[in-house]
Predict the structure.
Amino acid sequence: MSTSHAPFTDTAQALPSFASSHGLRRLLVKVFTSDSDGWSHPEVPALLEYCERKFALLARRHGQDPADAMAAAFDVLRLPSTLDAEDPWGVVTRAVQRTMQAADRADRLLCSVDHARRLMSSGDHDVERFSDLAEDGSIPVVVEQVAQQPPGEPTVDTPRSPSDMASIRESITDRDVRIGLITVRTLLSWAGWPPDDARVALEYVCQRLRESGSPAAAFDSLRRDLSPLHLLDVDHSTWTRLCRVLLGSAAQDGLIRRAMCGARPVHLLDDSRLMAALALTAPAPSSEVRHG
């Protein structure tokens, strides 16, 4: 049902008129006052596509599909109270956020979304998924096991020839990728990133890397992408530094590549330059004013 779209960015194109709360209210007035089925209005498909892109990162942050966020937004848009709200987009955003949180919790507890909503309202706590990082940033067992294995050829931050890189890519297994991503998330957690934010930031960068085809192209795209600034609550310089550390440069491999190519956590932690760069990406306390 869901179609693949490029991630929505504030700079990708001119925003539609309904992107503002005032514009959304005008569209909803047309929909609700239509003599026929108002939701067949020609702007509605574009509105739903916009919702899917707008809330895609929020959905992934909670392990959900962007199409689920779009459906949640549509449910709220159909409510007359949304039309009457002072800030319609604020109402929609908060409702989608709550729905994604409930869906995430339902997945954790293997229960219905409605039951998860009731638990959220009651203030009860759920259990953590065994695959999630611990709140204290401790290393998962699978990473500890890999760290204890005899190290292979050390990762050297020097430029490699295209043939060398092709050989490395061909030798990387799914297990290498999984362990590498866990390693990166662990280091981000130690650098001060909340585990959930570390996960969504890494997934966002990896998705753009797949779409762009190279670390350089991915970095160039991500540094102009403003969406993560609002969802992760970081400023532009912090986001750019994080992308640089994860993706690297022409002269130095990024953390993602190093981890997937077998760099052990203990070796990465001993890299003072890397850890200093990671420390500069740590989100500022929530009390500080963020991204301008």
Remarks:
- The beta strands are 248-249, 252-253.
- The chain has two domains: 17-122, 141-279.
- The longest strand covers residues 248-249.
